[in-house]
Amino acid sequence: MAEAAKHGATPLEGDGKRILMIFGTPKAEGLCHALGEAYALGARREGHVVRQLKLGELHFDPVLRGGYDHNQNLEADLLEAQRQIHWAEHLVIVYPVWWGGLPALLQGFFDRVFMPGFAFKYRGRSPHWEKLLSGRTADLLVTLDTPRWYFRWLYGAPAHRQMVRVVLGSCGIKTQRLTSFSPVRTSSETQRQNWLRKAEALGSRA
C-alpha cells in the first residue's frame, strides 16, 4: 500500500487499466499539472489505477553523453521509471511545447530511458528494429502559447510529429489522442476551467 501511495495510485488495484502519467515539465506547478490531475480524477472515477512520474522531481542527468556508443548507467530514478513504464498499459504524457519542440527535460528523459534493449532492439544491420513497448497506448496533453492552427499549418507541428511518429511510434506505443490546449498565454480563467473539464472527460474515457 505504501508503494502504491508513493506513485499516486489508489490503494487497491482492481480491474481498471494501469495508467502511468508522466509530467514532462520542470515546473513544480502550473497548467500542465492541473490538466494531469483533472485527467487522473476522471480516470480514477472509472476504476483505473493512475501512477505519476514528475520529471522535475527526479534526479538524473538528461544528457546522453556518449550516444549509443557508450554505456551510461541509469540513475535509480530512471530505473524506477522503466519499471513503471513496463507496469503500465496506458501512458499519459503531459507537457508544454517550447520553441516548437519538447522541453529539454522531457527530451533528455526519452534519450536516457528509451534505450536499445528497453524500448527497441536492433536486428543486426537491418534498417528495421523490434518495438519492445508494443501493446501500450498513450494520450498526450499538450499546452502551447501558439494557436493550434498556426502551429499546424505554419510550423508543421514538429513536436506532435516527433512524439507520435518517432518517440512513441518507434517503440510500439500507439497514440490514442493528442489534445492541444492553446493559446495559453492569452487564455481566460473561463477557458482554463473548460480545459480542465475537458481533461477530466478524457480521463474518464482512458
Count of DSSP-assigned helices: 7
Number of domains: 1
By DSSP, the count of extended strands is 7
Estimate percent helicity: 25-40%
Q: What's the CATH architecture? A: 3-Layer(aba) Sandwich
The coarse overall form would be: globular
What CATH calls the topology is Rossmann fold
Q: Could you give me the name of the CATH homologous superfamily?
A: Flavodoxin domain
How would a crystallographer describe the biggest sheet? 5 strands, parallel
Order of H and E elements: HEHEHEHEEEHHEH
Rg over alpha carbons: 17 Å
Protein name: NAD(P)H-dependent oxidoreductase
Organism: Zestomonas insulae
Family: Belongs to the NAD(P)H dehydrogenase (quinone) family.
Keywords: Oxidoreductase
Give me some keywords for this one.
single chain; 206 residues; alpha/beta; Rossmann fold; five-stranded parallel sheet; two-stranded antiparallel sheet; 7 helices; 7 strands; globular; disordered N terminus
Notes on the structure:
The chain is of the alpha/beta class. It has one domain (13-204): 3-Layer(aba) Sandwich (Rossmann fold), CATH 3.40.50. The chain has helices at residues 2-6, 31-45, 76-87, 104-113, 148-153, 158-168, 189-204; strands spanning 18-23, 49-54, 90-96, 120-122, 129-131, 137-143, 174-181. The strands form two sheets. Strands 2-1-3-6-7 form a five-stranded parallel β-sheet, with helices on both faces. It has a two-stranded antiparallel sheet with strand order 4-5. Helix 2 (31-45) links the parallel strand 1 (18-23) and strand 2. It is globular. This is NAD(P)H-dependent oxidoreductase. It comes from Zestomonas insulae. InterPro entries: Flavodoxin_fold, Flavoprotein-like_sf, NAD(P)H_dehydrogenase_qn. Pfam families: Flavodoxin_2. Keywords: Oxidoreductase.
